[in-house]
Amino acid sequence: IGSDERCEANQAAGKLIFLSGFDFAAAAGILDIVAAEAEGFFDEMCLDVQLQSGLSPANSAALAAGTTQFAVIASFGEMVRQNVNGGTDLMAFAQLGHTSISELIVPAGTIRSLSDLQGKTVGIKGDLPSPVQAMLAAEGAQRGTFEELLLDGFDPVAHLALGIDALPVYKSNEPAALDREGIEYVEFDPLDFDIPASFAVYISSRENYEKWPTAIEDFVRAGLRGYRFAAENPEVAVAHAFELINAAGNQFWLAETHELSRWRVERSMVENVTPEGFVVGQLNTPRLGEEIQLLADLGELETLPDWESMLDDSVVPKLHDDNGELIWAPMN
């Protein structure tokens, strides 16, 4: 780190395109990268990074096709499913989240136990998140014991008004909308049921890693410095995000106050659930293995794949000194 040779190696990678997971929302895995670019951290690592708005489910295909070089994906399990079912060869290098970004909410005064959902109706946006599905199954409400209603849009107020009995949500999104409307609800969090999960996972292709190992490492390094900047300067970081959001027409009607709330929730999740002895961003390999075993148990994977070959858990630790501080030496 800090040498001319490393700078030249990083420059040789050329333009590196990063695809976000959900526009440039102030989410973990997105705001950290936005901050790193805006504050010049990638430039200091001799990296030419271009940010593009993306959606997590489609990012894997772009990486596999070589049209982008870095992305954030919703979970390690999602990446493994893409490798197994989609024929991609992607690798994970860092994870900000060590729990599920999703949870289940029910209207206040209705469901006391998840087993009570048998015979009830659960609203579904696309599909039932795997950690929520596993939580339900662990409490005796296996998929198939309740009705599923496919929902349109992302408005939890409108969804609950349909009379559904439960709704999977993003912890950093829909609860804030319900709070603003004064709607009372009860949360069932997979974390409280010890369900293994992850979120905000940095990924690239194996081919990219083999060609540009220092570029991969220093991209993660700059992203982690961006995370710390955003944690310490949330208003500035969100303002950086909205420069990009507004330049692209704000297609998802994002609001700065809501995005600040989203970041506060996700930052809290990152820092409160990162395991003791780990630095922020470090892969928890044993727990990720439990996540993949869970997907196999749920039938989302036909067999248990060689998931350990799909990550490199040495990247983040080597970016830190013995005191857990990020090593930073500008090269440009």
Automatic annotation (TrEMBL):
Alphabetical list of InterPro entries matching this protein: NMT1/THI5, SsuA/THI5
UniProt source species: marine metagenome
UniProt-listed PANTHER family: 4-AMINO-5-HYDROXYMETHYL-2-METHYLPYRIMIDINE PHOSPHATE SYNTHASE THI11-RELATED (PTHR31528), THIAMINE BIOSYNTHESIS PROTEIN HI_0357-RELATED (PTHR31528:SF3)
A Pfam family reported for this protein in Swiss-Prot or TrEMBL: NMT1
Protein name: SsuA/THI5-like domain-containing protein
Span of domain SsuA/THI5-like: 32-237
Source organism phylogeny: unclassified sequences, metagenomes, ecological metagenomes
One GO-annotated biological process of the protein: thiamine biosynthetic process
